[in-house]
Amino acid sequence: MLDKEYNEAEVKELFLADGREQGIEQTLVTLICKKLVKGKTVKVIAEEVEEPVEYVTKVCKIASKYLPDYDVNRIMAEL
Questions:
Q1: Rounded CA gap, 59 and 21, in Å?
Q2: What is the pTM of this model?
Q3: 79, 67 in Cβ contact below 8 A?
């Protein structure tokens, strides 16, 4: 027997929350890639997107594998 009852609404909300988080991160990665194409530095990008330099550096290192056309889906998979 299960210790907890299945709560469909709770499970649905968890999936929705996870999807929203992934969508926000994908948008952020897309913005970072667009700024890389414009030749901006990691520090400038981090300031503009208001994210830590460490995170932007990580995204940029992964993105550099997919030059010149940044593949956001592959970058996301590696994050």
A1: 16
A2: 0.80
A3: no
